[in-house]
């Protein structure tokens, strides 16, 4: 039996350099197989009830200094002297003890690896959550807001910040404190919205730096709402025409106006040329151009003409979706065909408002005049001073101003074929900014006036 146990014992323990079997109440004799372990440098068998001699092989290793041998002389009756005994009573508990020790090491290793993997996974979840918060706390399109959440977000619709064709807009906060704007659909606007949920979900994945992000939506029974990122500086209309408002006391300077125009054009370009299928806004106007804390312009309410699909019998909603008087493409009235150039016309009107500081419908003592009708004779007179917003004084570049007027007039042509693509408008407006910054004269690049029938005065 001793020889049968010694062989697997040697194979199992051949890599051990130190064995500590002290105070295990082991009985029997010390097996000489321990001396055959090639890497064994230390052996402690003290504190046991061993009998018999210390094997000569272990004694020799200890004497030569290659093995540190520890034993309890008081409990070992034979010590190093020869006496009779049976090593099989010792070798079995030794093997069991070593196996138990190895098993414990393996168990601890497995637990350590499992702990590290779990900790790494938790760290990844935390990092992903933090990244999601930094990017705008966007909820999954498969997790719409409930109406109770909408009530909580808006503190029971405590603070109204606006009202549009679809209902009132309320200021609110998400659970993490991030401000949002909640557009609650009015009770008169809840009929015929067959495609609301599908379109709202599709709009949530439309992202551009010059588009207001749609964070989520609510569609629960008769309750419908849209949750947008909050734009702290309100809308362009407030900054251009509501100067009696205590919150808008600063006049937009010329460079700010050009940059707002570029921002809005870039957002429109993404809707027209970056989305598949293209999205036509259909109701572009200053109140739908919102301004962030650093005055970056973003287009709001894009895609609502598709998101709020209506029945033909709901005339009030259909009228709202057709656009706002003064900004509506005149060709749309005649043909009823909506296309990207309809938005370009609306943009041209907004650009005229930025240039002149006047609203689309100009009131005088006799009648109301459309801004294009008002500006056209001014252009023919060739006096840019009469066109530019007088609140700007002389703080603008004349050449840049003329070019901006030319771009606005091209966008506001009566037929869509005569209007440029919005990508061309962006190039022209950036040239305006370059002229304004450098105060140098350059030739027109992307918009050649010769290709259009409308004649404008040259820059002066």
UniProtKB/TrEMBL annotation:
It comes from the Eukaryota. Residues 155-433 form the Protein kinase domain. It is a single-pass membrane protein. One of its GO terms (molecular function) is ATP binding. Pfam families: LRR_1 (PF00560), PK_Tyr_Ser-Thr (PF07714). The chain crosses the membrane at residues 90-114. The lineage of its organism: Eukaryota, Viridiplantae, Streptophyta, Embryophyta, Tracheophyta. Keywords: ATP-binding, Kinase, Leucine-rich repeat, Membrane, Nucleotide-binding, Phosphoprotein, Receptor, Repeat, Serine/threonine-protein kinase, Transferase, Transmembrane, Transmembrane helix. PROSITE patterns: PROTEIN_KINASE_ATP (PS00107), PROTEIN_KINASE_DOM (PS50011), PROTEIN_KINASE_ST (PS00108). This is Putative LRR receptor-like serine/threonine-protein kinase. Belongs to the protein kinase superfamily. GO terms for cellular component: membrane. SUPFAM superfamilies: L domain-like, Protein kinase-like (PK-like). CDD domains: STKc_IRAK (cd14066). ATP binds at residue 183. It comes from Gossypium australe. It is found in: Membrane.
């Amino acid at each position: 039996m001793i020889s049968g146990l010694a062989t697997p014992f040697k194979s199992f323990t051949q890599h051990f350099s130190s064995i500590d079997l002290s105070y295990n109440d082991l009985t029997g004799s010390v097996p000489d197989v321990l001396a055959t372990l090639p890497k064994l440098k230390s052996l402690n068998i003290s504190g046991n009830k061993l009998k018999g001699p210390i094997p000569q092989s272990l004694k020799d290793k200890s004497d030569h200094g290659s093995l540190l041998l520890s034993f309890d002389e008081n409990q070992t009756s034979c010590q190093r002297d020869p006496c009779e005994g049976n090593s099989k009573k010792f070798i079995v508990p030794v093997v069991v003890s070593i196996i138990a020790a190895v098993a414990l090491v393996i168990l601890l290793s497995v637990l350590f690896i499992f702990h590290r993997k779990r900790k790494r996974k938790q760290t990844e979840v935390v990092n992903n959550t933090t990244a999601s918060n930094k990017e705008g706390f966007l909820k999954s399109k498969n997790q719409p807001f409930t109406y109770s959440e909408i009530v909580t977000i808006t503190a029971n619709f405590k603070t109204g910040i606006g009202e549009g064709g679809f209902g009132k807009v309320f200021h609110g906060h998400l659970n993490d404190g991030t401000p949002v704007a909640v557009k609650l659909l009015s009770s008169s606007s809840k009929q015929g919205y067959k495609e609301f949920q599908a379109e709202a979900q599709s709009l949530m994945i439309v992202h551009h730096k010059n588009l207001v992000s749609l964070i989520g939506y609510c569609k629960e029974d008769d309750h419908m709402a849209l949750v947008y990122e909050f734009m702290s500086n309100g809308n362009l209309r407030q900054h251009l025409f509501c100067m009696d408002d205590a919150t808008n006391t600063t006049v937009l300077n010329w460079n700010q106006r050009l940059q707002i125009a570029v921002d809005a054009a870039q957002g429109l370009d993404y809707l027209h040329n970056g989305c598949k299928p293209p999205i036509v806004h259909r109701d572009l106007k200053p109140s739908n151009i919102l301004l962030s804390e650093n005055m970056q312009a973003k287009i709001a309410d894009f895609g609502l003409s598709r998101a709020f699909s209506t029945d033909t019998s709901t005339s009030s909603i259909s009228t709202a979706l057709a656009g706002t008087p003064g900004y509506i493409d005149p060709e749309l009235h005649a043909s009823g065909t909506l296309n990207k150039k309809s938005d370009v016309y609306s943009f041209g009107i907004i650009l005229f408002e930025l240039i002149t500081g006047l609203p689309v419908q100009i009131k005088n003592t006799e009648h109301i005049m459309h801004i294009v009708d008002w500006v056209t004779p001014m252009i023919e007179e060739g006096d840019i001073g009469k066109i530019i917003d007088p609140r700007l004084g002389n703080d603008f570049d004349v050449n840049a101003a003329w070019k901006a007027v030319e771009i606005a007039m091209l966008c506001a042509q009566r037929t869509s074929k005569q209007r440029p693509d919005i990508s061309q408008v962006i190039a022209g407006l950036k040239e305006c900014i370059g002229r304004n910054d450098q105060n140098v004269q350059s030739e027109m690049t992307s918009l050649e006036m010769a290709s259009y029938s409308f004649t404008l005065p040259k820059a002066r």
